[in-house]
Structures are given as C-alpha cells and as structure tokens.
Amino acid sequence: MGTLGFWRLAQADPDWVAAVDPDGTEHTAGDLLARANRLTHALRSLGLEAGDGICGLVPNGADGLVLYLAALQAGWYYTPINWHLTGPEIGYIVADSEAKAYFVHARYAAEGARAAEESGINPKRCFAVAGEVPGFTPYESLVAGHPDTLPGERTAGATMHYTSGTTGRPKGVRRRLSGLDPDDGAELMTFLLSLFGITPGRPNAHLVTSPNYHTAVTQFGGTALHMGHTLVYVDKWDAEETLRLVERYRVTNTHMVPTHFKRLLALPEDVRSRYDVSSMRWMIHAAAPCPVPVKRAMLDWWGDCVYEYYAATEGGGTLATPEDWKAHPGTVGKAWPISELRIVDDDLNDVPAGTPGTIYMKMAGVSFDYKGDKAKTEANRLGDFFTVGDVGYLDQDGFLFLCDRKSDMIISGGANIYPAEIENEIMVHPKVADVAVFGIPDEEWGEQIKAVVEPAEGVTPGPGLAEEILASLEGRLSRMKWPKSIDFIAEMPREPNGKLLKRKLRDPYWEGRDSAI
C-alpha cells in the first residue's frame, strides 16, 4: 500500500482537477484538500472526536465532497441525507445518528431548518452551506481562522448510510472503524472498483449520475476519487446531457440504474450519433432489475463496457461482466472473490441450483450492525451470512438470478421505497379504514407506487377522496413516496390473524409479465 488515497494523491499533485460541479466549476485536488483540512481543524475545535458523526443535507458537488473527505480523515461517520425527505424525516436521521454537526445547503433551507428543530440538535452545531439557512451559522464562520495544513492523529472514518426497513423507519448501517491511516483505508476501498477491472491514475473520469446520498453513488464516486479519477457531478440527470458530459470530460466510468438506460435508448438516433462516447470503458449498473432487451440494446450501442452487480448497503455482492451476461442473459452475476452466497428455503436449508429461495450473503472481513437496533441486526443473520430479504436462485454455474426484490419493497427509478412507511401515513386519515401499498409495472421507472384503500364506513370512494388522501401527505412524506394512483376496494383481503394478503392485490397488475419485480 502507499500509492493511492485522495490525501496522498492531492499532496503529490495539487493541480489535478479532482471534481467538476454541475455548473462546470472545476476544483483542484489541492483546493479540496485545503478545505477538508480546514473543516477537520474547525470541527475538532468544537470537540469532535474519532467515532463521532456528522450529517450533510447537500446536493451533488464539491461541498458534499469536502464533508466526506474531512470525516474520512478524522475518524468520523459521515451520513449524507436524502434531500427529498421532509423535515421530520430528516430530523429523525440527524437525531438517530447522534450527529455532532449538521450541514445544510441553502437550497434545502426550509426542510433542513425544520429538521434541526425536530432533532433537538444544539443550534450551535448547525451550519449553512452556500447561502443562508435561518438560525444556522455560516460555513465560512465555522472554518475562518483555521489552518489548511494536514491535521495530526489522522484515522480512517466511514460513511453511515441510512437504509429503510420494512417497518418504515430507516436504520444506519454502521461498520467498525478500521483504525487505519486514511489513505491506507481508502486504498483498501479501491478493491471494489478493481473487481470491474477499473485502473487507477489519469486520464480517468467518473460521471456521478445519481444523488450522493445513495450508498453505491458515494462508494463508487469516492473510490474513483481515491484512484485519482476526476469526479464529474450532475445535478439533475438528463439523457442528452449525459452524452455531452461523457464526450466533454472523456468519461471512462460511471454508475447507473436501468431507468437511465431506458431514457438513453429513447433518444433519437441523430442525437445519439452526435456525441463521441468512445471513452467509456466501465458503465456499471445495479439497484434495480434490468430487462434483458434493454441490456442487449445498451451492449449493442456502447459495446462490451456494460457491467452489472448485485449488492446491499450492508455488504457482499455479485458481478456480471459483459461476457458473463451474454452467456447467462438476465443474471446479476457471480459472487465476488471475497463474498459468498447461500440460497435457502423457509426452513433455512440450502436449496439446489435452479430453485428460488432467500438470498443470503457474506463478505470476508466485513461486519456491520443497524445502529441502535440489535434485534434487527440479529434477525437478518444466518451464522456469518445476512439477508435483505431478496429472493433468487443460482444456476449450475453459480450465476445469481433475481426472482423478486423483497416481497414488498418497491424499486422505482433505482430508489428503494418501503410500503409500510407510506401505509402508516395514509392509515391515519379519518376516511381510510384500511390500506395496502405496493409496486405495479411502469415502463420508465420499473415500478410505480399504487395504493389500494378500503374507505371508512359511509365514505364514498372516488377521485375526490383520492385527492384528499394525497393532499394529507404534504409535508409528512416526501413526494417520491406518494402513490401515483389510488384504487378503492370494498374489503381488504386479510387472513383471520390480520395478515394482509398483498399478493392477491398485486398479482392482477403483473399478469402476463415475466417477473414480479
């Protein structure tokens, strides 16, 4: 070890353009290093110690990257927060993560400030980035007067992403800190990209296509940076703009979801052929099942640079090279060299090849817990293996195929959406007797959110009631979780013990489909 890691690379070559903001502003490695050092000194002066946490409600770009780099060299946990959430949802994460500092970009001032009140965090620990946030200290005031020199006693920190559970409340996935030098820790992280054959050094550029609060986006972007690649950020994804950026920055690698593929393929042929995208060598995708025809069309257009994997925030995973996928169409790949898979039945016995069961994974040397939830941590374990509840099977050659992504979870545009959380919010409406939420097919997003409501006695179902129910979610549930449509039913299908037979409701919408994903 000793050649990779952002801080080492930035000291050796401070003029390398390490990041490009969505507006085109370029940031050198030396500039980012100085900013991260200043922030580390400033937060240490407030009493932050290794093992503490910080939260950031910031858009894609250098501002969030500086928070990440400071945390990862000071031994802190960094939690990037989904900016589509409402104040109470954000506040829950700030409180649950026990954040010692909370950063909010001016763009999200309203919900960010609501969250601060909700969380009970000390107002002196709240900082406004790139503008004003009511009651928050400007970021510039926090770092003023602090040196840009490398801090002493550096130790590797980690990200702590929040992943929702079927009970609706998200949980922080927390790994033990390694105690390593930050650059050595970062160099170990580069193993992930090396699995795909990605090489370190310049000229290489990584296009960040999705919000940085997603685990994979932080991991792939951060790891590319530690390999010396330039990070090119987008604010709002656009198909043609993606092609323009690939050509402009000679992008060599990126991380996408199948929704991006569908929109790229929908571009007219004259637009597609207008851009030189020959620099792309690793177009990596995950987060949602990719229909076989869509993947074939991408391989035909981009060539053998489309890689797929299956993994979880918790760790472990599979990888399908373009060659693997062509030989086993529809697979999400084989287990990583440091990962193992088990497919088990309801009695936790291993099943033979070709038989669907619950997917369990483990990754050598990696352990995690759900912060503050020992029961949830232990509930998903089978010895050293864990599951996120997905169902799939292995073929004779050890390639994994997904059958169903968690019986209830909805994947829309690559985002995981948990029905229980939505059901809980709709259920409190006085005109609702019962509710079920699930995903139905959507050609563009993979799935869209459908709610089926049993109206309270004496309440007339119809478009008016549907509008009233949706309006009641304003400010309580982020828009991306709102049902696209609401259907009504006279009586919800439940077993005598109260268990909802959700499949009875969902199956008619999926009739004639190859899979119930």
Automatic annotation (TrEMBL):
Domain of life: Bacteria
Stored InterPro entries: AMP-bd_C, AMP-bd_C_sf, AMP-binding_CS, AMP-dep_synth/lig_dom, ANL_N_sf
BP term (GO), one: fatty acid metabolic process
One Gene Ontology MF term: medium-chain fatty acid-CoA ligase activity
Residue ranges occupied by any AMP-dependent synthetase/ligase domain in the UniProt entry: 7-367
Keyword Ligase annotated: yes
Keywords: Ligase
Domain AMP-binding enzyme C-terminal: 421-499
Similarity-based family: Belongs to the ATP-dependent AMP-binding enzyme family.
PANTHER family, per database record: ACYL-COA SYNTHETASE (PTHR43201), MEDIUM-CHAIN ACYL-COA LIGASE ACSF2, MITOCHONDRIAL (PTHR43201:SF5)
Protein name as catalogued: Acyl-CoA synthetase
Naturally occurring in which organism (per UniProt): Bailinhaonella thermotolerans
Phylogenetic placement of the source organism: Bacteria, Bacillati, Actinomycetota, Actinomycetes, Streptosporangiales
